[in-house]
């Protein structure tokens, strides 16, 4: 336990020595939002990768739980990310799997976005258009959308 406190104290001490040199880059504006993958437990978790201009998933979601991977480049306004199924807001039943969230970095290693994974109970949705939307953190807070038709069995 003493080692842990000693380590934390050393980090705090170094931080206070260098606090004038530490710089943080501003959060980048939201520039892209895309559904990039879908799978389900009925498909043995085999991901279908969705291309930029693809309008429908080739394989249905089946079983009990579906999964959607969403690419978010930039900074979204907190609380404004939404998932819809056939126009109905299903954000409250779509749970983000935080452990699977992947950072997206630029060539210098700066985080510029995330790949986020959501699980959706298939007994609560129907075949049809799935839409993800997010608002830009920065004014004028434009909203970005992506749509994908998915068959649900």
Automatic annotation (TrEMBL):
InterPro entries: DUF4879
One Pfam family hit: DUF4879
Signal peptide span: 1-24
Keywords: Signal
This protein's name: DUF4879 domain-containing protein
Taxonomic classification: Bacteria, Bacillati, Bacillota, Bacilli, Bacillales
């Amino acid at each position: 336990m003493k080692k842990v406190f000693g380590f934390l104290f050393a980090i705090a001490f170094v931080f206070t020595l260098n606090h004038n040199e530490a710089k943080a880059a501003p959060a980048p504006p939201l520039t892209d939002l895309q559904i990039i993958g879908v799978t389900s437990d009925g498909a043995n978790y085999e991901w279908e990768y969705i291309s930029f201009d693809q309008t429908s998933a080739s394989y249905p979601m089946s079983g009990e739980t579906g999964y959607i991977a969403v690419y978010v480049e930039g900074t979204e306004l907190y609380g404004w990310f939404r998932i819809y199924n056939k126009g109905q807001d299903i954000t409250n039943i779509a749970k983000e799997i935080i452990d699977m969230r992947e950072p997206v970095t630029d060539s210098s290693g700066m985080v510029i976005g995330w790949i986020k994974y959501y699980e959706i109970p298939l007994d609560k949705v129907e075949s049809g258009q799935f839409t993800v939307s997010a608002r830009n953190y920065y004014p004028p807070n434009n909203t970005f959308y992506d749509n994908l038709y998915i068959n649900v069995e």
